[in-house]
Specification:
The protein has 5 helices and 8 strands. The chain has 200 residues and is α+β, with helices and mostly antiparallel strands.
Length: 200
């Protein structure tokens, strides 16, 4: 029985979402901060999968615990999949998302809706103390909006428009966002995988 899972993030917004979805696993879900871990991880993978595995494996080696890690980002088709795996580092890690979002809107100036297609992708990796690795992937499709909309969510949420809901992901309720989001989908898939492993 696993009583504790460390999720390799320091992002409290993300941890709220994670705890909500994984609470019925019956394990305590700790962030890096909760677990008192402070290590520099070189995320040099070329894909979301590679980066998620790198993070999970490093923290598992440091702690000997079951560790989950995610890598996620925004892929914009018109910009050849940018910012992709560089979503968090796009225009520099310390640059505010208001500036990042405006830059992407500017780069799509004059581009019609049908060419503004984009998706949020999230891959979650689980690194077990015995060396096993499993991954789960989730995505949500939308288009890039023309302005920031909404106060909920974080990162690129205010410019990610869902035509079928007539709002940005920053305007969704937390419950709806968990249901639809790339991270929500990947977390639910990972939860099912973990249940199989924990019950075996």
């Amino acid at each position: 029985m696993i009583n504790q899972i460390i999720f390799a993030t320091g992002n409290e917004g993300k941890m709220k979402e994670i705890r909500l979805i994984l609470e019925d696993l019956g394990a305590e879900i700790l962030s890096l901060k909760d677990a008192g871990i402070d290590i520099e991880i070189q995320e040099d993978g070329k894909t979301f999968e590679e980066n998620a595995v790198i993070k999970a494996r490093e923290v598992m080696r440091a702690t000997g615990a079951l560790v989950l890690a995610d890598d996620s980002g925004l892929e914009i088709d018109y910009l050849n999949g940018e910012p992709g795996v560089y979503s968090a580092r796009y225009l520099g890690e310390d640059t505010s998302y208001r500036i990042k979002n405006q830059n992407l809107i500017d780069r799509l100036e004059g581009v019609p809706d049908e060419q503004r297609t984009a998706r949020f992708v999230c891959v979650i990796a689980a690194a077990f103390p015995d060396g096993r690795i499993i991954t789960a992937r989730g995505a949500i499709e939308g288009i890039i909006g023309y302005e920031e909309r909404g106060e909920g969510g974080f990162g690129y949420d205010p410019i990610f428009w869902l035509p079928e809901y007539g709002c940005s992901t920053a305007e969704l309720t937390m419950e709806k966002k968990n249901e639809l989001s790339h991270r929500g989908k990947a977390l639910r898939e990972m939860k099912n995988e973990l249940k199989k492993v924990l019950e075996a």
